[in-house]
Amino acid sequence: MLDDNKDFRRPKARPHRYRLLQPEEKGAPEEAIVFATPQDVLSRVENLLPAETGLYHKGYDIATHTLRLMFEFPDVARERYAERLKEIVAGTGWTYTINDKPHQGRLVEVALECLPVTMLRAPAVHLKTKEVAMKLDALPDESIVDTAMTAFYERTGWRLQLQTPQATITPVAGASAPQTTPEPASQNARPRIIEESELEFRPATGGRPLSEKTAATEIEEAFSLAPETWRPSRVKLKTDERGDYLELAFLTPELGLRQRRTMQAMADATGHRLRIRPHVNTFDLVDIARKLAPKEWRMLKQPSLRHDQRVARIKVAAMPSPEELAEVCEEYYETTGFRLEVIV
Q: CA 88 from chain center: how many Å?
């Protein structure tokens, strides 16, 4: 408890520190609030909200003593970590705010984790309806769809919409179960051919473009929160018959196209025409496949690539269990955008 004959003063040079004033310095107030230092509050955040909670940025406003927290999936975080958030600010004099919009890159990632299938185009994020739409060439099994939609909703608080040439599958509002009457899907899905026009992103305005170095820095920063293999390995200024453009080299073009919104946002922000490099990084694709294959599989030779099929192929001495095979193949697709085939 504070004595009635004391008050607090904040030095201008160090507004997060306080000292007590004696009555002769100032008239005694009825009550004074002791604010914790920003370092103390941030320390609580680190202890109670580790990386696995989806917190990817934390800051503060010292003038209002407000924590600013950014979660990958704020709708889930507000409910799931409500008690932890109360504990963080309890007795500190601080309040907190949470971002309204989710991390779009992570939304796409989780959608692909829940349903790793061949898509006709990169997933689309619809902020108004809180949905991620995936356009597929064939309809998955109903049980797979149910599981994927439920898992996506539980992890993100958003709904997963699946579109095929035969049907659109959308969860019922407030639930995760889908409703649809699809036609039979083809079992012979082929990899989609990427059109040249899909690889290019033009700025919306005609302002003066940033310098190559500044633009490259902005682009690298924009992709810094993406998974490591999803980031461009190089940004290079090139020229074609229409003038200069910046080429972004991804591990595969598929990974670049998964991040269409970021590509367009960077074209607008830098004033440059951007293009995704149409070629793949063969060495890294092979190396990732080799490292993902467990030693117990006894790989007989180095993985090979079939570029036309967007497939990496591994020949092993003995076929692994279906569960283990599915897990490794899913991780390879998520990491590279290519499918993995294992043969004996």
A: 26
Out of 3.40.50.720, 3.90.1640.10, 3.30.300.20, 3.40.50.300, select the CATH number for domain 104-179.
3.30.300.20
Dist CA 295 CA 292 (whole Å): 9
Distance (Å, whole) CA 180 – CA 171: 9
Pairing outcome for strands 200-201 and 274-276: antiparallel
Count of CB atoms situated within 10 Å of the CB of 179: 9
What would the DSSP string read from start to end of 189-240?
--PPPPPGGGGEE--SS-PPPPPHHHHHHHHHHHTTTS-GGGS-SEEEEEEE
Using pLDDT thresholds of 50, 70 and 90, give the confidence band for residue 31. low
Convert the pLDDT of each residue in 56-92 to its tens digit: 888 888 889 999 898 999 999 999 999 999 999 999 9
pLDDT of residue 167: 56
Kindly report the number of other CB atoms within 10 A of residue 307's CB atom: 13
Q: What is the pTM of this model?
A: 0.48
Q: What is the DSSP letter of 53?
A: G
- What pLDDT digit, counting tens, does each position of 128-171 carry? 889 998 888 777 777 788 888 889 999 999 998 887 765 556 55
Nearest-angstrom CA–CA distance, 54 and 218: 24
Radius of gyration of the chain, Cα coordinates, nearest whole angstrom: 26
- Domains of the chain, residue spans: 38-98, 104-179, 198-276, 282-343
